[in-house]
Amino acid sequence: MNTPPLARIAVGVVVERRAATSPWIEHVWRPVGVLAGVPETEPWTSLPGAAGADTFYAGAAEIELHRSETTNYRDNLASGQASLWVVLRPTGGDPPFTVVTVTADPAEGEAFTETATDLVESVPMPEPIADAVAAFVAEHHVERAFEKRKRDRADPEALGRRRGEETR
C-alpha cells in the first residue's frame, strides 16, 4: 500500500511443524493461528500443541488497516468464516521462517502467493480482531456505486469507407 494505514492491530503468529510423508522433505510447516496481541515470549519459543506436531510462537506482526480496502474487509467478515492471511518467508537457516505480514485483506493475501517462495496460509480470525476490523469498516467504509461506462456509438456512415473515398 502506498498510503499509510489508518489503524494497526498487533498480533502474534503461531506455526506448526509436522513430520512430512514425503521422501524429499523432513517437515511440513504451516501457520495455525494468530493471537490477539503480542505475548511476552521470545520468537520461536516452543508451545504445547497437537499430538504429532511441534508448535511454536513464530513472532509478532501488525495487521494494517487501510480505508481503501474496507470492501475486502467487510466481505471477509461476512463470509461466515472470517480469516487472516499469514505470510512467512523461508530464511534458509535457524529459525526457518520470518514473519512477513498478517493481513485481513483476502486480495492482499492472494497477492503474496504470486512469488511462490513465501508460505501463505489463511487461519481463523480471532473474535477480538474481527471486532476491531468490523469497527474499522463501520467507521471508514464508503459505499461506491458501480457505474457502467457507455461506449461511444459507431458512426454507420463511416463504416466501410476508405480514406479519400467520397460518399455518394
Report on this model:
The chain is an alpha+beta fold. It has one domain (7-140). Helix content is 17%, strand content 36%. The chain is built from three helices and seven strands; from the N terminus they run E-E-E-E-H-E-E-H-E-H. The chain has helices spanning 70-78, 106-111, 127-140; strands spanning 7-19, 27-36, 45-47, 53-65, 83-90, 97-103, 119-124. The strands form two sheets. A four-stranded antiparallel β-sheet has the order 2-1-4-3. Strands 6-5-7 form a three-stranded antiparallel β-sheet. A hairpin with a 7-residue loop joins strand 1 and strand 2. 24% of the residues are buried. The mean pLDDT is 88.
Per-chain topology:
Layout: E1 7-19, E2 27-36, E3 45-47, E4 53-65, H1 70-78, E5 83-90, E6 97-103, H2 106-111, E7 119-124, H3 127-140
Antiparallel strand pairs: 1-2, 1-4, 3-4, 5-6, 5-7
Helix pairs in contact: 1-3
